[in-house]
Amino acid sequence: ETLKFAHFVPPQHTFTGAIVEPFKTGVEKDTGGELEVQVFPGGELGKGPVEQYVRAVSGVADLVWGLAGYTSSQFPLSMIAEMPGVVDSTGLGYEKVWSVYDEYLKGEFPGTRPIALWVSEPNVLIMKSKEIRTVADMQGLKIRVSGSVPGQLIEALGAIPVQMPAPQMYNALDTGLIDGILTGSSAIRDFRLNEVANVYTEGANLGNILFYVVMNEAKYQSLSDAEKAAVDAHSGIGLSKSGEDNWNAVAKKMMEDLKADPNKTVISLSEEEAAPFNEITYAVTDKAIAALDAQGLPASAVKKAMQGGM
Amino acid sequence: MSTVAIGFLGLAVLLVLLAIRIPVAFAMFAVGLGGLMILNGPAQALSVLSSETFSLASNAELVVIPLFILMGNIATESRMSRALYDAAYAWIGSIRGGLASATVVGCAGFAALSGSSVASALTMGRVSLSEMDRFNYAPRLSTGAVAAGGTLGILIPPSTGFVLYAILTRESIGRLFLAGVLPGLMLTVLFVIAISILTTVKPSLGPKGPKTTWRRKAESIVGALPILSIIVLTIGGIYFGLFSPVEAAAVGAGLAILGGVIGRTLTLKGFLTAVKDSIATTATVMLILIAAHVIGPFLALSHLPTFVGEALTNLDIGRYGILALILCAYLVLGCFLEGFAMLVLTMPIFFPVITALGFDPVWFGVVVVLTLEMGLITPPVGVNVFIVKSVAPNVPIGEIFRGVAPFMLAMVVAVLILTLFPSIALFLPNTMIGS
Amino acid sequence: MLLRKAIDGLVDLSAILGGLALVFVTGVILTDVVGRALGSPLYGVQDLVEMSALLVVFGGMAFVDRRGGHVTVDLLEHFYSPRLNKIFVVLGCLTGALIFGLIAWQTWEASKLSVMLNRATNILFLPRAPFQYGVVVLSAITSIAMFARGLRAALNNGAASESAHT
Ligand code: NA
Ligand code: NA
């Protein structure tokens, strides 16, 4: 039996060491090679992050990796993990997400079972040249965002949210089409942003990014008990922790490299400097939670449970 | 039967389907779908059909295709293309093949606007083919020049090919962009040389025009001013950060409409014809691109590219031998696969080998992109040739492939020169960014 | 004859829809570019463009087939007898009809999945299923039109009218 594990990044990406390798070697070892994990990187079975979940449900691949934020309408409650004031820089996003999964999030993952759920390092501001030290510095700047809540954050901070496909970020920053990008620092190297961005601001709570690896439920049910046990043993909280730890390590290294580079400016906001930012971003979280509550979703309860899971 | 054998069988079936005149897109769909059914199950294969269709047709970056076609069609309907070629003819029409050379240079200029070969070949084809026809240029020369010239789109920055290569190999996008500039210009010159040789050997391919007076030359430039300013504004807008290359396509179309309305050369009927033609060409081209993405997963599951790659790189034939084989593999695979799918499938195999052999990764990026471009014009599956065919439906495809052959040779020469003198690619990145 | 007129009408309607969508996309991007230069870009423009692009791409599918615009490799055309060429044309039409039929069916299935997964665009939350219904209808029209063309080619003597309309 083989499991087709598909994702959309090159094999050298953090994802391979953080998730693919531990899962593959663990499952294959436990089953004595009976259950083989075949990896299809770089979108070989279908490009990009957007359609990955659909590919798992329809069985094009057995396991896929995706970003909840690319299809946020599917994950209104799960996406609470991305909001400022929930995970931030705790490095415990995976624990928080798993702590509410069974009770609240399961319904957002129909047709699949979660293999790993983890949260990226905190988002930073990646700027072409503008130094962001205070909220006032952000007025009128064009910042690329990837989703609805990040868009609201940028708007609340007085800047202009701009939407564009990820591969265009490099050129857009280079030509000055946008002033900056809001995303995690682990993405800087993925898209070579360090070549065209000279100023980085970290320390404010600007949200995080939620990742999932899911497996087709029917495929899981078709496995023998021993194979199921092997999959179970190498997925869940343990694998998710590996994802989150690796992401945070890559992000930390990236920021250290940038700080060591004499041509780059890294602004690390102190608690006092970050406070005015956080005041605004937490208000956006509260507003987004209230909007979800108004739709009849238990958003407040999820947020509280995630925050309590520290 | 092994999966690799199924992969080879699929390619053989594709050839048969093409030979019996099944439209290219449907032949690729059929093979991709059939192969996926065998390797991945019928339900899974069918669902690839819907997911790839939807994600490609709703791709925010591929929107450049209809937009650039619209721009080209509006320029044609409002007689701006005609004015442009009148000007080109007045200036260099008296040289044999001059318009074809002008078209290639135009392609190089358009490459500064567009990151994709398909968009370049489409727009330039729409604008230039009927014009060259008007001046009695043989379709063989004009379609060949456009199909080949379009490939400059991905060599001269901005280039989606270099972005993908950089992301796959963790090389610098900036260095790759710079590295593409001189080879792109060199290839432009080689194309022009090829045109001169062709028209010297066979003057009827691109007949000489009459000598024109300076007065006529000046007048023609005035006539071409609207379209020239559109081109300058669109390219300028990208470099001054006013809009992205994708948006530039819409801006170009918008300016062409505006210019046509102000100059009273664009009628409502002309506008509607342009829109209608754009819709038709978009459908043709997008269907081929979608089909290429259905065949991609089939070949990935068959492990055929991995098989070919590993077979090649395990041979003991020296570093230039392996380089030559890898490039040949791209040429052969390029006969069946869309260029970007090929990069994704093969780069993990070839890249470590190439760097271990001591080749410069940025230089290799340029050579690979150039070779991928050759794959776009080689039979039987030459996407750029199909693109040109879609805007020149009356020219037999064999004629286009024949027309492309000399340019293909120019590209081989370019690869040889780059291999002998890697600094042509590396000079700009090393001086401007440092090594 | 009446049926053919009905099909032609549907093909024209599809093309008009595609044309409108193309003009809309151009307009939306231009508005965004100008708005951004003035400090207020059109928010969610990517969502609008992506969904309209579906109609641009699929609106022309039946239309281009009627024009005989689908690219074929005509290298060997002259080596085949007229009878064989006719068979191949019919075969091409039927393959196309089958594939567009499958696309319509599978997109219909995928639309159910979109409803189940509550899929919508990322900023404006435009629901995805209605656009998939659009693709279903446009693909079905293409499938029917191609099937009808194949049928006509099979019944007519002589070469099929590849470019009857323009
Ligand atoms: Na280019
Ligand atoms: Na080819």
UniProtKB/TrEMBL annotation, chain B:
<dbReference type="GO" id="GO:0022857">
    <property type="term" value="F:transmembrane transporter activity"/>
</dbReference>
<feature type="transmembrane region" description="Helical">
    <location>
        <begin position="407"/>
        <end position="428"/>
    </location>
</feature>
<keyword id="KW-1133">Transmembrane helix</keyword>
<comment type="function">
    <text>Part of the tripartite ATP-independent periplasmic (TRAP) transport system.</text>
</comment>
<dbReference type="InterPro" id="IPR010656">
    <property type="entry name" value="DctM"/>
</dbReference>
<feature type="transmembrane region" description="Helical">
    <location>
        <begin position="145"/>
        <end position="168"/>
    </location>
</feature>
<feature type="transmembrane region" description="Helical">
    <location>
        <begin position="320"/>
        <end position="350"/>
    </location>
</feature>
<comment type="subunit">
    <text>The complex comprises the extracytoplasmic solute receptor protein and the two transmembrane proteins.</text>
</comment>
<feature type="transmembrane region" description="Helical">
    <location>
        <begin position="56"/>
        <end position="75"/>
    </location>
</feature>
<feature type="transmembrane region" description="Helical">
    <location>
        <begin position="362"/>
        <end position="387"/>
    </location>
</feature>
<dbReference type="Pfam" id="PF06808">
    <property type="entry name" value="DctM"/>
</dbReference>
<keyword id="KW-0812">Transmembrane</keyword>
<protein>
    <recommendedName>
        <fullName>TRAP transporter large permease protein</fullName>
    </recommendedName>
</protein>
<feature type="transmembrane region" description="Helical">
    <location>
        <begin position="95"/>
        <end position="124"/>
    </location>
</feature>
<comment type="similarity">
    <text>Belongs to the TRAP transporter large permease family.</text>
</comment>
<feature type="domain" description="TRAP C4-dicarboxylate transport system permease DctM subunit">
    <location>
        <begin position="11"/>
        <end position="424"/>
    </location>
</feature>
<dbReference type="InterPro" id="IPR004681">
    <property type="entry name" value="TRAP_DctM"/>
</dbReference>
<feature type="transmembrane region" description="Helical">
    <location>
        <begin position="180"/>
        <end position="201"/>
    </location>
</feature>
<dbReference type="GO" id="GO:0005886">
    <property type="term" value="C:plasma membrane"/>
</dbReference>
<keyword id="KW-0813">Transport</keyword>
<feature type="transmembrane region" description="Helical">
    <location>
        <begin position="248"/>
        <end position="267"/>
    </location>
</feature>
<keyword id="KW-0472">Membrane</keyword>
UniProtKB/TrEMBL annotation, chain C:
<comment type="subunit">
    <text>The complex comprises the extracytoplasmic solute receptor protein and the two transmembrane proteins.</text>
</comment>
<keyword id="KW-1133">Transmembrane helix</keyword>
<keyword id="KW-0472">Membrane</keyword>
<feature type="transmembrane region" description="Helical">
    <location>
        <begin position="84"/>
        <end position="108"/>
    </location>
</feature>
<keyword id="KW-0997">Cell inner membrane</keyword>
<feature type="transmembrane region" description="Helical">
    <location>
        <begin position="131"/>
        <end position="148"/>
    </location>
</feature>
<comment type="function">
    <text>Part of the tripartite ATP-independent periplasmic (TRAP) transport system.</text>
</comment>
<dbReference type="GO" id="GO:0022857">
    <property type="term" value="F:transmembrane transporter activity"/>
</dbReference>
<dbReference type="InterPro" id="IPR055348">
    <property type="entry name" value="DctQ"/>
</dbReference>
<dbReference type="Pfam" id="PF04290">
    <property type="entry name" value="DctQ"/>
</dbReference>
<keyword id="KW-0813">Transport</keyword>
<dbReference type="InterPro" id="IPR007387">
    <property type="entry name" value="TRAP_DctQ"/>
</dbReference>
<feature type="transmembrane region" description="Helical">
    <location>
        <begin position="9"/>
        <end position="30"/>
    </location>
</feature>
<keyword id="KW-0812">Transmembrane</keyword>
<keyword id="KW-1003">Cell membrane</keyword>
<feature type="domain" description="Tripartite ATP-independent periplasmic transporters DctQ component">
    <location>
        <begin position="26"/>
        <end position="152"/>
    </location>
</feature>
<protein>
    <recommendedName>
        <fullName>TRAP transporter small permease protein</fullName>
    </recommendedName>
</protein>
<dbReference type="GO" id="GO:0005886">
    <property type="term" value="C:plasma membrane"/>
</dbReference>
<comment type="similarity">
    <text>Belongs to the TRAP transporter small permease family.</text>
</comment>
<feature type="transmembrane region" description="Helical">
    <location>
        <begin position="42"/>
        <end position="64"/>
    </location>
</feature>
